[in-house]
User: Fold this.
Amino acid sequence: MNRVVVTGLGCITPIGTSVSEFRDSLFAGKSGIAPIIHVPDAPDGNPGVRYSQAAQVFDFDPTTHLDSGVIAAANRNTHFAIVAARQAARQAGLMEHHQPGDIAIIMGCACGGRSSEESEVKNLYTRNARAHPLTIVRTMSSAGASNISIDLKITGPTLDISTACASATHAIGLAFHMVRSGMSTAALAGGHEAPLSWGFYRAWDSMRVVSPTRCRPFAADRDGMTLGEGAAMLVLESLESAQARNATIFAEIVGFGMSADANHITQPQAEGAASAMRKALSDAGASPHEVGYINAHGTGTQANDATEAEAIHKVFGERAGHIPLSSTKALHGHSIGASGALEALATTLALHEGRLPQTAGVDNPDPSLDIDLIIDEPRTTGPTLALSNSLAFGGLNAVIALKTWK
Assistant:
């Protein structure tokens, strides 16, 4: 079995459209949550919801990265995917050191081309208009994976995973197992979403789980999540191949665990999340006593944060209240299928730099949760083992275990 390391990073996010920008915002606690701007198709550009904030990517212009044909044939979420994948592949020297057929592309995307689909459906139902001939390829969830393959000329296993908010973490976990087993010599893994359309805003408003102010994970006064968009990519390869060419190693992925609550479509269960964490540790050959940081799913809803805290107590017992924990959704929002990728990127950078990011905007952690929530500023840490949790609607849980590389 190969040891698997991270040698390339890429991202398009509300807190940075490059990894260096993302890193600077991450450790400065600079939030990308801002007032919702003009929403296409909504009357007067106003989505008509009870919240006014979202984590949007403002400084991304596809014309500076992609040719007109690709822009026309792909949705914004796919534009994000291609550019973030290029960043990661370039940094790792992926195409120079691996054969195209030996590289896997495993993406997480739950919403697909939501804005493209809504636009076409509106025209159909209001004007009986003919659908644009590119509607299907703009809206399919696997478009990002396919376009990365075409853009980088990668011919290995290529697929999309759609498991709601755990999509990207499932994708990274599968890619990790493929490289560890030797099925692929390297992989591009991550997630991408750009779902911030009129219908999307309204649908989430009806669920009553979006904060009317902003996401405050694990705070005593938390009142919901903040919707977001973005993409993040990791290049995974064997330790042997990385060392053979003296590649920069950002972190080692050592375990992956997943589970299903088998209980309710929207009400999480602590035992399901706990099971995924235990399985990630078992896969890593590690004990709970070795964990030095948890990047929580931490949506800022009453139910998620309480359930996740309970799950942590189930796994770590008396240590639960002493393990540093943060949720970076307070910075980049909840990008649904891509969220696990943004959080894996944050965790990787935390391990690489020996700094654990704070949970921005929270100054009153909920004492009933009994967790060691990082607030105010990042904490310095030595070599450590970290977990990155994703707990999705439908009771689908995915956890990756990463370790500092020294």
In short: Residues 4-244 form a domain with the Peroxisomal Thiolase; Chain A, domain 1 fold (CATH 3.40.47.10). The chain has a mean pLDDT of 97. The chain is about 35% helix and 20% strand.
